[in-house]
Input
Amino acid sequence: MTAPTLHYHPLSSCCHKVLIAIDELGIEVDKRLLNLGDPAERAAHLARWPLGKMPLLEDRGRAIPETSIIIEHLQRHHARPGRTLIPHDPGEALDVRLWDRLLDLYVMTPMQAFTADRLRAEGERDAQAVARARDTLLTAYALIEQQLEGRHWIAGDAFSMADCAAAPSLFYALTYVPLLPQHARLSAYFERLVDRPSVAHAIDEARPWFQFYPGRDGLARRFHDPA
Ligand SMILES: N[C@@H](CCC(=O)N[C@@H](CS)C(=O)NCC(=O)O)C(=O)O
Output
């Protein structure tokens, strides 16, 4: 069987989510670095997927977009025996999907709003959009803090797809809106995430690229590239 192809960039938070899942599920993929800043690469990517977002998986003659769908596809068709990021129990699976959605919509998305604003020209910055993104992030941090009471990972005892979403979204969100003293459980959870080998691998691959990250002034020194 041919390995699936993943179009990705090592700096992208959404790509980290899928890279972490690939590592956790023990899957071989053919990774293709995608530079959307290059007009020819962008045009080729738009031909594969008109929304032009990454990551994008190609498998069995199909283009598969959207991180959560990519992970479910990989889980179903390629996971090593015994490896799972979505529990078999339907109720537990629903919790994982709920937290995956919450992290994508209320941590990943507002974090991306900060990045988008930093990339705008000086006169085109949108202070109101940034203030809204900050409010959403602080509300999400409070919700996560509450959810973590008595839980090791975000949806329970097992590391799941929701933790794949949590790791990169929080990693970058914290560079814009740091945690406060009332986020003690979230702070400890973040340390568990960055210590997880699959997450550490994604961060290591990104290190040489952090110099291009618009929020690099908020990135903790321990994540800088030693080189
Ligand atoms: N909901 C999508 C979000 C994908 C997304 O926003 N990808 C970003 C990178 S994190 C991207 O492709 N940005 C480039 C662009 O919009 O041109 C998913 O989960 O896959």
In short: The first helix runs from residue 13 to 25. Strands lie at 5-8, 30-33, 56-59, 62-64. The chain has a mean pLDDT of 97. The longest strand covers residues 5-8.
